[in-house]
Amino acid sequence: MIEEKISGGVQSLEVGLSVLNALLEHNQPIILKDLSSKLERHPAKVHRYLVSLIRMDYAKQLEDGQYALGDQAWRLGLNCIQHSDTLQLVQHLIYDLQSKIGCGIQISKWSPKGPVVVQSIESNHPISIVTKVGSIMPLVNSAAGRLFASYLPEHFVRPLLETEWQKHQELGLNIAPHNWEEFLELKETIRQQQMSAAKGDLLTGINAVGLPVFNSNQGIEFCIVALDSEMFLPVDPQSKIIETLKNEINSINQYIKSR
Fold it and tell me: What is the 3-state secondary structure (H, E, C) of the chain?
C-alpha cells in the first residue's frame, strides 16, 4: 500500500498506477471488493481511480461488473514487447532471412493471453499473408502456439490448451491435436526437430513453419514463423527452404549467444 494523503476529488498518478499494477498482477477479471483488499484501500477510493483508468482505456468494466485491463494497457505492453533488446538486436538478421526465403515472416512473443504477433513482414510472392500485429495466435493449431506450448512448462500450458479444446468442442469444431496425449506426441517431434508446422490448419492452402529463438538462459525468447502458400513453403523438414530457414535461425541464435 502507498501511504499518501489525497484531498477529495484530486487524483494521484502514483496511486492510480498502483491500481493499474494490481490489475496487471492479478491478470484476470476481479471484483472491486477483492481489488480494494489487495490495495488495502477503501472501495470508494479505488473506484474513483478505476473510473479514470476506464476513461483513458487502461481498464474496463465487464458485463458482470468485474474489472480488467483495457486496450490501452494491452497496447502499452505490446509496444514494450516490440522494442525488446533481443528482438531489436537481430532485426538485420531477420530481414536477411526473409530476403533469402522470400516467404512472409511473423514474429511472436509470449504474453499472458498467449503468443502475440509483434512483427509481420510480407512475402515476396503473389499471395501475401500478413498477420495483424497484436493478434493472439491459438496454441493448439498455429505454428507459433505449438512451438511455445512445446517449450514452456507443461503445468503452465496445459490449462490453456484444455480451454481451447473445450471451446472448440462446444462449437462442434474439430482441431488437431485433439487432446493432451496427442499434443505430447507432437511436442516430442517439435522438440526433436526444433521446428513446428501448421499445414493449412488455420488457412486452407497456407503453410506455416515456426522455429524458436532463445535468450541467454536458453529459454524461448520469441519465435520466427515463415508462412506462405503450400507452393512456396513445403513443410517437409528435408526441403531446401526449410534447411535454409533452420540454418538462418541457428545463426540468429548463435549471434544472440555470442553477445
Answer: CCCCCCCCCCCCHHHHHHHHHHHHHHCCCECHHHHHHHHCCCHHHHHHHHHHHHHCCCEEECCCCCEEECHHHHHHHHHHHHCCHHHHHCHHHHHHHHHHHCCEEEEEEEECCEEEEEEEECCCCCCCCCCCCCCECCCCCCHHHHHHHHHCCHHHHHHHHHHHHHHHHHCCCCCCCCCHHHHHHHHHHHHHHCCEEEECCCCCCEEEEEEEEECCCCCEEEEEEEEEECCCCCCCCCCHHHHHHHHHHHHHHHHHHHC
